[in-house]
Amino acid sequence: MNEVIEVTTQADQVHSQLRSAILSGALAPGERIRMNFVASDMSVSLGAVREALSRLAAEEIVIATAQRGYRVASLSSEELNDLTETRIALEQICLRASIAEGGVEWEASLAAALHRLLRLPEFENGDCLQLSMAWSQAHDSFHTALVSGSRSVWMNKFRSSLYLQAERYRRLSVPLRTGDRDVAGEHRQLCEAALARDAESACALMRSHLMRTSEILLRSPLLMTAERLERAEG
Predict the structure, then answer these.
(1) Tens digit of pLDDT per residue, the chain (234 long)?
(2) What sign has the CA pseudo-torsion 117, 205, 182, 23?
(3) Do 43 and 142 share a domain, yes or no?
(4) Measured distance CA(134)–CA(104) in Å, rounded
(5) Does residue 216 sit within a domain?
(6) Rg (Cα) of the chain, in Å, rounded?
């Protein structure tokens, strides 16, 4: 029993660290994940690494390939377009429901989530290439708070899955941003429209917010380079 608990605990650790490495880009799209290396580097068992990778595969941010183990899921402009449009549609559905159904506790949690997000620096030590983990967590909490008034458990589960997939793209877009984007202002406007119970404005702002991130990446050569490297690696 103790051995099972230890493997599960180790798997939780590996899952968390690999997930962070994938989202941050430290593990690149298409990169192979060598289980022996991970087990040695993190001082955990192969069983724990295998369990963690199975979870990440279920989340579809790593891919299991026959005879080749696991690799980080690839990125593409085609997927980004599909993901963005699907996410916008689902975020808008959840947001409308949240505005219609959320009570005073929802309002309070949303206002608190915005306050925390705006108070934290987006980058580590002012380095625009190093996104703050605390800010990223607060960003996740804010977007979750926006839709937390919705009573649909399944809708919010689907939304969370899409958020995770989109997060890899969003973090890649951060270093490519120009100075004309006011991310804090976008979040503030989203919050204000939601609290004003203005579903039409909130949904329009959500579309604009998500499209801006997508367009930054689609204008850059980054995705084309990633696709070319993956084809070369076969």
Answers:
(1) 445 456 668 889 999 999 988 887 788 888 899 999 999 899 998 889 999 999 999 998 999 887 778 999 888 889 999 999 999 999 999 999 999 999 999 999 999 999 999 999 988 776 666 778 899 999 999 999 999 999 999 999 999 999 989 988 888 777 676 667 889 999 999 999 999 999 999 999 999 999 998 988 888 776 666 556 555 555
(2) positive
(3) no
(4) 26
(5) yes
(6) 19
Q: Which residues form the domain of 135? A: 77-222
> Hey, what amino acid is at 88?
I
Residue 136 lies in a domain: yes
Can you tell me the distance from the alpha carbon of 114 to that of 195, in angstroms, rounded to the nearest whole number? 12
User: Considering its fold, how many domains does the chain have in total?
Assistant: 2
Token output for 234: 């076969």
Say yes or no: 91 and 184 in one domain.
Answer: yes
Encoding tokens for residue 127?
């380095």
DSSP assigned state of 149? T
Q: pTM of this prediction? A: 0.82
Residues 6+ apart with CB under 8 A from 157: none
